[in-house]
Automatic annotation (TrEMBL):
Belongs to the spermidine/spermine synthase family. The active site is at 177 (proton acceptor). This is thermospermine synthase. InterPro entries: PABS (IPR030374), SAM-dependent_MTases_sf (IPR029063), Spermi_synthase (IPR001045), Spermidine_synt_N (IPR035246), Spermidine_synt_N_sf (IPR037163). NCBIfam families: MFS_SpdSyn. One of its GO terms (biological process) is polyamine biosynthetic process. Keywords: Polyamine biosynthesis, Transferase. The keyword Transcription does not apply. Residues 24-261 form the PABS domain. Its EC number is 2.5.1.79. Coiled coil: none annotated. It comes from Hibiscus trionum (Flower of an hour).
């Protein structure tokens, strides 16, 4: 049969061929300068560029439909529930009676979908800067179609910073469902101390909670941005909780940071009780005991969070290694 020969191209795609067998297409993403992550494709469903970023929707053999922006995987059909349940539900469950939420980013609609499962929620404002991303996600990601049609969802196309700045409304929950801070990208300013302190926190109601995705949190990757985001938020809020989960399609453990000026003081049984009472349908990943476990760091990560001194500012930011390959799609 002959040996398989793989030819990798610099545009993010490669072909793997075996003698007398059809060509397989692969997608490749740079994780670090000496590490890449690739997966076999069934097809490329969409590729294009908006005013702000390059966009691709891939149908993969292992992970189903995969959303890629600027060469970085954002979510995969088979395991996006892990990321989005961890991002959305803890803050809603720790709040005594959440009514309103503001989502920064979240254009694919999955964060809004999870939030709208909570019976107490009256309004979800989802603010994404890129109308083209939102439009094609509405078209292709059918799992979120009901969320986009929900009357409680207020979809705003704008820069989240500008929208929060001009808003006269305050929210029970504010969510950062943003792209990772990448050098040259538009999002890193939404991870800075001045943004959290001067713009975001004043838009929270009393007892309000802020939560953000915080990048890779693995044993080898947590110092890239996770520890810095945690330490930056710690400068602004009295109570800050970091937690992590493994997301297979990201090829790493992922991190989130939740913050408030009120303590996070409920236990596993109460979390499970609130899930049963407040949430429509079954959660696939999260329960009380697993969440509390996710907030317990291994020794290396714990010490990094404890000893981190870097604070995000406009002049002094940290970035995820690599820029992806989006410009060549």
């Amino acid at each position: 049969m002959g040996e398989a020969v793989e030819i990798f191209y610099p545009n993010g795609f490669c072909n793997g061929t075996t003698k007398n067998q059809p060509v397989d297409s692969w997608y490749e993403e740079t994780i670090d300068e000496d590490l890449k992550w690739s997966f076999a494709l069934k097809s490329v469903l969409y590729k294009g560029a908006s005013e702000y970023q390059d966009i691709a929707l891939l149908d993969t053999k292992r992970f189903g439909k995969v959303l890629v922006i600027d060469g970085k995987m954002q979510s995969a059909e088979v395991d996006e529930f892990i990321y989005h349940e961890c991002l959305i539900h803890p803050a809603l469950l720790f709040h005594s009676n959440p009514k309103t939420m503001f989502i920064m980013g979240g254009g694919e609609g999955s964060a809004a979908r999870e939030a709208l499962r909570h019976k107490s929620i009256d309004e979800v404002v989802m603010c994404d800067i890129d109308e083209e991303v939102v439009s094609f996600c509405r078209r292709y990601l059918t799992v979120n179609r009901d969320a986009f049609c929900n009357k409680k969802l207020n979809l705003v196309i704008n820069d989240a910073k500008a929208e929060l700045e001009k808003s006269t409304e305050k929210f029970d929950i504010i969510v950062g469902d943003l792209a990772d801070p990448v050098e040259g990208g538009p999002c890193y300013q939404l991870y800075t101390k001045s943004f959290y302190e001067k713009i975001l926190k004043p838009k929270l109601n009393e007892n309000g909670i802020f939560v953000t995705q915080a990048g890779p949190a693995g044993i080898f990757t947590h110092k890239e941005v996770f520890s810095s985001i945690y330490n930056t938020i710690r400068q602004v809020f009295k109570y800050v909780l970091a937690y992590t989960a493994h997301v297979p399609s990201f090829a790493d453990t992922w991190g989130w940071v939740m913050a408030s000026d009120q303590p996070f003081s409920i236990g596993a049984e109460e979390i499970d009780k609130r899930i049963a009472e407040r949430v429509d349908g079954e959660l696939l990943y999260l329960n009380g005991s697993s969440f509390l476990s996710s907030a317990t760091m291994n020794k290396a990560v714990y010490l990094s969070l404890l000893n981190e001194t870097h604070v995000y500012t406009e002049e002094n930011a940290r970035f995820i290694p690599g820029h992806g390959l989006g410009n060549h799609l």
